[in-house]
Target: UvrD-like helicase C-terminal domain-containing protein
Amino acid sequence: DLIFEHGIRTDLKKSKGFLLPYHEYMSLDEDYVKAQTGKSKQEVIDEIKITIPKLGNSQKIFNELSYGCEYVSNHSMLIILNVARKCLECVINHGLVGGNWKQQILWIDSQIAKVKDMIGPFPAFAEALSAIGVNYAFIIEQDLRNNGYCGVKDNPWEAFDKLMKGELSLPDSVYKSELTHYRILWKNTLSNQRQVLELLSRFEINSEVIKWWFDSPGCYDELLNNPYIISEESLIENYLPVTTEMIDLGIMADPKIQGKWTPKAPSLVESVIDNRRIRSFIISKLVASLSDGDTLISANEIELYIKDCLAADNHQLPYNYLMSNKEFIEEKTIYLNTDDRCALQLKEYKEIDDYLRKIFKGRASKDVKSPLKEDWNTIVKASIDGYNEANERCRNAVADQVKALEMFCSKRLSVLAGPAGTGKTTVVKAFLKSPQIKAEGTLLLAPTGKARVRLGNMSADIQALTIAQFLTRQGFFDWDTMTPCVPEDAEKRKYCGAKNVIIDECSMLTCKDFYVLMKALDLKNINRIILIGDPFQLPPIGPGRPFADLFNYLKDNKDEYLRSAITKLRYVVRTINTGDSDILTLASWFSGEKPAKNSDLIFEQVAKGNLNNDLVVYTWNDENDLKDCLKEAIEKELPEEEGKSLSDKIRKSIGLDDVNKALNDPSKVERFQVLSPVKNPVWGTFQINSYFQEWVGINKNFSIEIAPITISALDKVIQLKNERKKSTSKEECQLSNGQIGFVNYANKREKKSTVVFTGLPNKRFSYYSSKSDEADNTIDLAYAITIHKSQGSDFDTVLVVLPKSGRILSRELIYTALTRARKKLILLIQDNISWLIEYTKPQMSVLAKRNTNLFSTSVREDISNIPYVEGLIHTTLKPGLIVRSKSEVIIANMLYERGIDFEYERMIEDNGRRCIPDFTFEDASGDTILWEHLGMLDNPAYKESWEKKRDFYKSIGYIEGVNLFTTVDHENGSIDSTEIAAIVDKLEDLI
Model:
């Protein structure tokens, strides 16, 4: 390893440069930061960090900073230095740590001056020549400058024009023979084309962007009047993004950069609050927010963003700016008004929302023309191992699955939801066995390679495809941007093969994915679209949460016909005869629904170590003892083998104790999997993988370096990229991002390894040694993978490392991790489980924080708030209180309006026992009163759970009607407000 040290020392008077006090901020006390600044510790840390979003989300700057030897252009450096200056100004304003920050700002100012001296007024001159077909564009510019015809601050277009007229001489040039052709080209270039080329060359953009605009004469007038459309269109169309800041440097007059060649009207921008510039910032914010999951942003949040952008120039945004400039801004966006706020949305995503809403509602409300009839009851019973007619859980599980199958048969669009183990696979297998369905044909689609393999295993007759494979085959995928797209000839390319479409793991699909997918199907020839998934898992990486929104829209819809288009499987098939699963009981707390009444017992069981055999919990204090805790858990929890070493135990757990068997069945490598929320900290996958390599022992002669990792023979690995790749036997195969395998062969001298992947038995794929940047790698170690990577997969035994800190933690992330295990889950929780309980709350939902507009407009006021969305978030009148159900909203609001003090889901302890009631009160004597709302008594498992909890309450002195009160939802889901009012009256007398 090479160790680099910077030349900036603590004694800043003796060093040149700047050093942001990141580590000093990290060591600050949270309460101290709040008291000094009124902000959270994470907020002030974010304010002093130089990040890609602060640099305008520039792909160009990202690429320049991603490689150690990459050239950073002067324009990029100027943007970076300006952001650095702003970060240091934040350090001064915070006043949290000492330091000579003004000296560092002075140094930055001196560097800004130096960079400006090196920048000319037309930095993309050569790129512009290249865009119109001049082969030696960069050499021509160099020759003009080297021969003194054009200085740094001069206009190279004047010199080039003279060269084309023969007024300048460049003897012995390599392009001498082509000058005649260039002169003809230039002579026939129209004046407005030259004007556009000159304008485009003011910005540090490449020839592809310049050529796109040069070849669009219909846009010339708009471009000359508003050059910021270069940024807007590049961001909206997702090609070679150009930032607002890059345009600023070309059309805001600055003689230090442009000399005497400052821009002129109409392109000139004289004010930082010019509406052309502000609209560009708005587009930039809306596009950047898509990657965070938001399809629209409140006007207030946009104004806060613009104010932050203007702060560097010490300018304010005028009052009511967005409404005052609405007509101009609406040329590129849509203004949406709800009851309490205004929001802005890109036109493309308004169109996507409108289209999906129409398709989803239209198909969910219609039956197929020829409903299918099968004896599903008999088929499902036969598919459940150990089915017992006398077991009420068995009967109810069958009823749920039969309901799902009947829904599949009758609905043009249906939704099947449910956590792992509830029988979704059984339902799909049964459906695909129907002779009529076989005759009609079924298209099986999944978002990931692993999910595709699993879906494909549901039928021997049908080959499942990833969505990317299907869209590529139909011509609806852009490999340049690696995104789904709708081609101009979409009507000719629509899929019209099978009559049924099943899409699995739908929670991973963005609204754009769904939109393009629906556009790629010839819907008039599709009988059934079946969407399967778990709406409580991690939301998609990208805009929206369409599956969760559809799930919530259908499940509580007032229209019974729409409500019948969804089935949620509620009974865990694999535990029907063995009782409740501790894994799924714990996971239910992190779902978006109210858990069973007795499920709070799980926290006490974890604390006391009194768990069933499918869940084990270990705790660790800090990074210093994580390794020992991890090792202890592996030694104790993996299958015992007399006299076997830790290395042997690990090898056996991933099926690599017998390589020949693993070659024939590489899926064995997925029997045991470690998960972590992140890659890089000490508790991340990178470090954990290094521990495993240490424990299994690696032979350096049978290893190769694929920087920054080393892989060895029999290492567990994961594919990081979707690609077609030839095996060593020259057979071309599809490898999927997330596909797990093992290293079959590695040789240091040959600098070569071969890997075998799950789903591709006895096929070997070659990988070669590389010292290049890890961004180029297509393979990584996989003893431990991130929770995000595990989505769409499941494993026999899963070990999850959960650190107490980490911004990435969310309710959905934890739920996804907990539901990856088929048989056994091992949790390694930092400190104890008490902090984990906080993540069960609705406020910790990353899914709910997204702004969407699919079935109703859900938009937060600002980044720190959670938007209200029907079915996902239940807000109350009590400030800051969010509850888990609509019925609890009614109760909480009535209590608040009557002035009765209460706590929601407060853990109480009595005689060493713990429980979490819905509402807790203190009476006049100081004794505790409890209120439980019973939402699903029609569900036998829920009813049984409540009866157990009621018995527990009785054992510690809580008697119904005295100090324990209950209300119920009726069969149709309604709640009687008079029943609630009667209990509130009693509480008023007691409290």
